[in-house]
């Protein structure tokens, strides 16, 4: 994102000094995935995930899937993402999003790649499809129920939470369960943190 051009180098240089062992830079289309790989290959503690976000469903072509396949061969690419379904705005259409998602799930299965899932108001379809393809990874910016979180964890996934409030204890997690399934907050520039986020969990 061009907004971070000014201080990107400063942040990257500060990671190791501040005890950050590794960072994953996520792509959302071909251009951003290529850039994520560039950053990863220029910095020893940065890795990339490459993929096509559901917003790309109107414009993608088969050649894009082939390009992502090649990116997955890079030693600094640790997964396929950010992929998934976003039914909040209804554009692109659900049909087109499902086609793109399934093509990338098949790619993940074929290459034995972990995935980073974007799931917004599409919980049922996302669960159904990850079961169908037998892949694992992370449900990021999680907005589902505690029951869904426990289900995806049983399938081998982690979940991560954005700044949107998610009170793990009130939603039925014990403190140990909450710590076990949480990766860390993210997307704070898009969904600002709210008071009381992840009560009972150190974040």
Number of strands: 6
CA-based shape: globular
Mean pLDDT score = 83
Q: Per DSSP, what share of the residues sits in E-state strands of 2 or more residues?
A: 15-25%
Number of helices: 7
N- and C-termini, Cα separation: 25 Å
Give, in spatial order, the strands making up the sheet with the most strands: 1-2-3-4-5-6
Quaternary state, please?
single chain
Biggest sheet overview: 6 strands, parallel
**Helix vs. strand class:** alpha/beta
Q: Would you list the SSEs in sequence order as H and E?
A: HEHEHEHEHEHEH
Rg over C-alpha atoms, rounded to the nearest angstrom: 17 Å
Tell me roughly what share of residues is in helical segments: 25-40%
Q: What are the low-pLDDT stretches, counting only 5+ consecutive residues below 50?
A: 184-203
Structure description:
- This protein has 203 residues and is α/β, with parallel strands linked by helices.
- It is 38% helix and 15% strand.
- The chain is built from seven helices and six strands.
- The protein has helices at residues 8-17, 30-42, 62-71, 94-111, 123-133, 146-154, 175-181; strands at 23-26, 46-50, 77-86, 115-120, 137-140, 158-159.
- It has a six-stranded parallel sheet with strand order 1-2-3-4-5-6.
- The longest helix has 18 residues, at 94-111.
- The relative contact order is 0.10.
- The model is unreliable at 184-203 (pLDDT under 50).
List the helices and strands and how they pair.
Elements: H1 8-17, E1 23-26, H2 30-42, E2 46-50, H3 62-71, E3 77-86, H4 94-111, E4 115-120, H5 123-133, E5 137-140, H6 146-154, E6 158-159, H7 175-181
Parallel strand pairs: 1-2, 2-3, 3-4, 4-5, 5-6
Helix pairs in contact: 2-3
């Amino acid at each position: 994102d061009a907004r971070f051009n000014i201080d990107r180098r400063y942040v990257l240089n500060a990671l190791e000094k501040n005890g950050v062992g590794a960072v994953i830079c996520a792509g959302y289309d071909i251009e951003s995935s290529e850039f994520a790989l560039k950053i990863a290959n220029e910095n020893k503690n940065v890795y990339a995930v490459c993929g096509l976000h559901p917003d790309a469903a109107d414009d993608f072509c088969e050649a894009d899937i082939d390009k992502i396949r090649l990116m997955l061969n890079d030693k600094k690419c640790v997964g396929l993402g950010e992929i998934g379904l976003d039914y909040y705005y209804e554009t692109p259409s659900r049909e087109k999003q499902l086609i793109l998602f399934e093509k990338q799930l098949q790619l993940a299965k074929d290459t034995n790649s972990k995935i980073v899932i974007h799931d917004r108001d599409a919980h049922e379809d996302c669960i159904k499809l990850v079961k169908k393809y037998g892949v694992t990874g992370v449900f990021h910016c999680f907005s589902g129920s505690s029951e869904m979180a426990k289900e995806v964890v049983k399938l081998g996934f982690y979940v991560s939470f954005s700044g949107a409030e998610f009170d793990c204890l009130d939603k039925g997690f014990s403190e140990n369960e909450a710590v076990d399934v949480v990766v860390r907050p993210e997307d704070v520039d898009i969904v600002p943190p709210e008071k009381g986020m992840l009560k009972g969990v150190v974040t």
